[in-house]
Amino acid sequence: xxxDKDVVSEERKYFLSVLQTFQSYxxxxxxxxxxxxxxxxxxxxxxxxxxxxxxxxxxxxxxxxDKNASYIPIVMKHANNIFENVYSNENTSHSETxxxxxxxxxxxxxxxxxxxxxxxxxxGAKERQECYDPIIDEIELExxxxxxxxxxxxxxxxxxxxxRLAFEIASRGFSCQGNEFNLFMLIVSFHVLNHCKIVNEFExxxxxxxxxxxxxxxxxxxxxxxxxxxxxSKPKSQFSMTAGDFLEVYTDKEIFxxxxxxxxxxxxxxxxQFIETIYHILKPGGVWINLGPLLYHYSNMKNERSIExxxxxxxxxxxxxxxxxxxRKTGIKTSHNLN
Length: 339
What we know:
Blueprint: H1 2-23, H2 25-41, H3 45-50, H4 52-79, H5 105-120, H6 125-131, H7 133-142, E1 154-158, H8 164-171, E2 175-180, H9 183-195, E3 202-204, H10 217-220, E4 224-226, E5 239-243, H11 246-249, E6 256-262, H12 271-281, E7 282-291, H13 311-321
Parallel strand pairs: 1-2, 1-6, 2-5, 6-7
Antiparallel strand pairs: 3-4
Helix pairs in contact: 2-4, 4-9, 12-13
């Protein structure tokens, strides 16, 4: 029991660190701008004269960061209610008020702003059409409304991000559950799915921290409004989001009729574990629908035991696990958080 309390304590501290990282977004982002301004000020007078426009751009970036930062308190207002999380009790002890920010946290906050574009803005419609629609089309082919009660078809979306794919599946009458491990995504998805009341109510600048390879400063300062639909109008079918590690949360066998994965399976150091788990949680005759690259996120990470089998090798593994591959397509053009 003592060990369990220690685990809860550590998870709670991590949760509080995530909240603290969100709240430090503006300060940390401005420090990066200030550093760039110092670099500019260290140049020769002639070079600074040629870069006057760049200096004005840096000043304009601050306004965009302020706009992003203004959304964070709105999200934080509901964060302590996330999934009835026992770690998010508002009553913090003295030692817990000393939790710091996460070293990689600012990058994760920035990635959430990009994901808001992809999942919940009209600008992200093209990416969703490329990545989500093929999965949804296959689900509807497998489970046509004329031949089954869709409300009794249970579908899992691991790596659900901000929940749009799971939401769209549930909106078509299926009982759908999204699963996400990233607390940054979970906290924002909780707000979008449960508390956004007006279409295009909020505005963010997804690419304001993308300082390289920009055609113009205006490209970097492109904004999006969200949500493009009203997600608080829950689908009539069952729809839920769960928090936690996919491999740890889903240990019971034969639960789902379908598992839909999008840009997910390469997020494991051992992709075979993901494939085995997907197979075991599917009911007999169940279907796994997958779309996405094999970028293998843990590859080249120090001290990570990552494997990176090719697509052909992975297909062999899929069959050895027990799947029958009914459809296989390559060369599908997709994009991810592009401006």
